[in-house]
Amino acid sequence: MLLVPRQLQRAGMTGDVPYYGGRFTPEQAYAAAHPARSHPARPQTRPAVRDSAQTHLALQHLLDSGVITPAEYQTLGARVPA
User: Fold this and answer.
1) CA-CA distance, 3 to 21, in Å (whole number)?
2) How far is CA 15 from CA 3, 8, 24, 25, 73, in A?
3) What is the pLDDT of residues 2-31, one digit of tens each?
4) What is the pTM of this model?
5) Could you tell me the residue ranges of all domains in the chain?
6) Is pLDDT of 44 > 80?
């Protein structure tokens, strides 16, 4: 009689079992010792399309609330197409 752990007796656990008896396979040991460097995906965002009137209103609000100075308002306002 062949003694088989209970995990391997379950349906679908036939063939190449990657984890057996509490030990790692060589592939799993290598993967644990050499973690993959995953780079977070940058979201592909498009710049918001606004008309110049909305942009000027937003700049005026920033100026009125004191977030930007009048010099910054002039500089940013010059960058907005008329």
Assistant:
1) 12
2) 16, 10, 16, 14, 70
3) 555 665 555 555 555 555 566 777 787 788
4) 0.41
5) 51-82
6) no
